[in-house]
Every structure is written in structure tokens, then in C-alpha cells.
Amino acid sequence: MISTLKVNPIDEATLDEIGFTWHTDSDGSKYVSDELVQITQEEAEAYYEVANTLYDMYVEAAEYVIDNNLFFELGIPFNLIDIIKKSWENDVHWHIYGRFDLAGGIDGKPIKLIEFNADTPTALFETALLQWAILKSNEMDEAKQFNNVYEAVSENFKRLITLFDDTEKFNELYDGWKILFSSVEGNDEEEATTKLLQQIATDAGFVAGFEFLQNVQFDDEGIYDKNGNPYEYWFKLYPWEDIATDEPELATTLTHIIQNQKVIILNPAYTLLFQSKGMLAILHQLFPDSPYLLQTSFTPLEGIKQVEKPVFGREGANTKIIEADGSVSNETDGPYENYKKVYQEFVEFAEDIHNAKYQAGVFFAYEACGLGFRKGGYILDNMSKFVGHMIV
């Protein structure tokens, strides 16, 4: 049984003031829980070690996919294959951050990988800032968290310049290169998350600007804000697979930009390999004895309870829980039904006294750097709640 501690929530006026405007769900319930999950230092260290190990496995698996031309198996759009290969070949295309979703790790349950949100992960604002603020507002020790997300992402921005060298060399190597940050207008959560990343990059020492995606200008020679100012880096909180299907001309232009070495795009195109849930099946093929992986296949598993999910899908949409006899016990609808499917062995999430299920989210920026939880039912959809944590 998960142990939680009741806390006083941050009031809505304060949340609005700091830019966290998505605090109330469509049914009127609060998105951020007024409880904290209590974990031990040993559990925090285990999350750290497992996430680091999983990232190394993903890197090896991505190389395997590229070497063996397995893009179709992962559902990768054909018009992104060239840009994925090009971004993979050169270390300057640096992966800024991602989030591992994990079952277990608390209440004595082993840690198991559910998926990796590597391209456009959400819950950054909540994990990096909000759960820390909850501890502070309750006059609790803010250090009692596995949470150095802000600092880790800042250091990773510096690695755009220093790469694998010591980030202390940033100031001597940085030559005024600028980052343009973009999200889609009208989505408060995505805008606030993108502007948080802009602030982190600014704190790291970059010149950084913001432009809504629909106002960004592109040609084969570069990427520009609406006033025609060029940028050396472009961060877009917009999925690569959506660019491929909804904006194919843009996909072609971005490929030319990368080939011409005019702009570096964040997160890089190769993170779409990590983002695809088809990689879960590749990982299981390559590392069948890993204690952190669930049996996963591109075809239904025989005789066991399993989860069917699209290779590209978000917020638990178009997910089915299939019992061992083939019957469907839980399912969600959504816009991702036409994507290829993977079938992953079912694993029980840890529960609290009210039988709510908990999934851990571990952020990764060069190394594992922070933990938060999502609380909900058997399928964690867009009505699940964010839950902070404390180390006891």
C-alpha cells in the first residue's frame, strides 16, 4: 500500500499568478493532488539508477533500428527517416529532456518500464516547480525530494555547446547563438511549459526568444521569428509525427535545414524513435532478460493479460486492457486508432488505501533528475492527477 501525506494545496490565485492555469480539470476536480507520495531514499536512488540504465538501452536499440532499417515497424513516417538518420549521426543534435513512465518502485513492487515520452513530455512544470513549491508552502524541507530537474535541464542546454565536455566551459565556448522556443497558440499548458524551458535556457546563458508555432518562418536556409530574425536553435513543443502527417511540406523543409546544417532542432528528430511505443518490442527483443522490461510484441501475446496501445498516442487514448481469455476489461477512445499497435504484458500499478493507481514519471536530462507521480485508474488518461512526493 502506498503511503501518502496530506498537505495544504497552493491556492488557485497563486497558481494562476505563476502561470499554472490548468489546475482544474473539465469535471471541476483539482488536477494537482493535496497529498504527497512518501518514498524512501533507497527508492529514489533505484528510480535514478533504472532510468539511467533504460536510457542506455534506448540508445543501443535506436542504433539497432537504424542499422536494420526498422522504421516501418516503429510506425515512423517515411518523410522523417532522412532527418532522423541525419540527427542521429551528429552529436550536436542533443536530446534536452524526456520522461520515463514506470510502474512499481514503491511498496516493494519492482520497477517496470511502461513507456518513454522522449519528444514532447508533459508534467515538466509540475515536477520541476510545483511539487517543490508545495513543500515550501507547507513549511517542509524542500530538499526532501528527488528533484533537480531545473538544474539538470539547464546543464543540458549548456551541453548544446560543450557536448560531452565539462559544462563549466560553456562561457568560453558560447558565441551568442540563439534559441527560438515555440508552442501552439491557445494551449496554456504547452505555452507555459515552453516558456519555462525558455527561462531555463536563459538562466543557462543563452539568448532565447519565443514565437507561437504558426508565426515561425522557415526556408531551406534557416528558421526565423515573425520579424525575420534568424536563430541557430529551434525548440518546438509539437510532436514530430504530427509534423510528418499534418505538415509534410514543413517536414521536407526541416530535413533540408538539417542537411544544410543551418539550425539544430530540439528535441532532435531521432527522439521519435524513443517516443514510439514500438521501441518497447525492440527493447524486449534485444534485452529479454532485463528486469525492467515487460514482455512486449507487435502481435498479441498468447495466454496472458496485456495492454494494447498505439505506437504513437498520448494521455492513455486508444488503449485496451485485454484479459488472458481475450476479453477487453478496460478501454479508452481517442484519435490514434489508425496507428500500429503494440502489446505489452500487463502490470499492476501500486495503490493507495482508496485503490487509486500510481505511475511514476522520472525525468531524464543527461541523467535521471526528478520524480513525480500520476494517479488514476487502470488506464491513466487525461483525467489522472499529478501527485508530488517527499523522501522520508
Automatic annotation (TrEMBL):
Coiled coil: none annotated. It comes from Sulfurimonas paralvinellae. Keywords: ATP-binding, Ligase, Magnesium, Metal-binding, Nucleotide-binding. GO terms for molecular function: ATP binding; ligase activity; metal ion binding. It comes from the Bacteria. This is Glutathionylspermidine synthase family protein. Residues 12-391 form the Glutathionylspermidine synthase pre-ATP-grasp-like domain.
